[in-house]
Each structure stands twice: as C-alpha cells, then as structure tokens.
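Q: Structure tokens for this one, please.
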Amino acid sequence: MVVALVIGGKSLFAAEAPEPGDTVIQFFKASKHGDTKTITQLISGSFYNQRKVLLEKNKDYPNFLRESYRRTILLPSKTRATRTE
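A: Here is the predicted structure, written as tokens:
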C-alpha cells in the first residue's frame, strides 16, 4: 500500500522539472561560489563532458570559479519558451 501525502493540492511525490531560468540561476550561483558538485548535477551531455576533468579532478577549479565570477552579477529578464521541431 502506498500513501501519498498531499499538501495544498499537490502530492509530495510529484517532482516537477525546474524551469530553465531556475537552472540558469542555480548554475550561476554555483559557479560564483565554486560549487562544482552542484554544477556537476546541473549539466549533462557534451557540456558536462567538456568540463568533467575540471569539475572532478582539478582541485584549483573551485577557486578559479570563485575568482572569475567574484564581481559578476546576473540580471534575469523575462524569457519565453519556444518550441523547436
């Protein structure tokens, strides 16, 4: 028997995919803080493959990211999803 707890009309078991803008913000914050673990969780495919060694083996990479993004700010703007076929 499986019981789903529902709060505010949504099941806690129903995971929703993050909005693309949320992922960009998470990626930016992780880069700014040198959080390579979070970056690794956020990216995939060729983008990940190109950075795998830096993220997993380069102990200086977190400091490089912190220094590179230290004075950088992210100015989000409204985005609109478009469908490509």
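A few notes: The radius of gyration is 17 Å. DSSP finds four helices and two strands in the chain.
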